[in-house]
Amino acid sequence: MRPLSRICECWELYGELTVYNMSKNDPDFIHQLAVDAYGAQHLGGVTRSITTAFALISLYLSVECGYTGKQVQKAHMELAEQRQLRFEPPHQTYFADGI
């Protein structure tokens, strides 16, 4: 478990980044990518698996497919409309052997 001071420091930095992003009034909405990067780094515990899944999907769309934050946000909305959508973490990891 991470020390509370590191958690608070991370949350403080995320807050600073949020203020910066929102002050830009960027039509590409880079703040969405900051939210997803934060979500991908803070998985497990109280974080729901769908939060992690959406974060990873979003980062893939941005990095590999060149989506803007606004396009990623639209993809989030389209995915959320699918009522059958279920994300379950894998039961075992690929690194179970200690590789």
Description:
- The chain is mainly α.
- Helices cover 59% and strands 0% of the residues.
- It is built from 4 helices and no strands.
- Helix 2 crosses helix 3 and helix 3 (49-63) crosses helix 4 (69-80).
- The longest helix is centred in the N-terminal third of the chain and has 20 residues, at 4-23.
- It is flat.
- The two termini are 22 Å apart.
Give a brief outline of the structure.
This protein has 99 residues and is mainly alpha-helical.
Looking at this protein, list some descriptive labels:
4 helices, mainly alpha, flat, single chain, 99 residues
Order of helices and strands: HHHH
| Global mean pLDDT | 78
- Biggest sheet features: none
In what range is the share of β-strand residues?
Answer: under 5%
Blueprint of the fold:
Blueprint: H1 4-23, H2 31-41, H3 49-63, H4 69-80
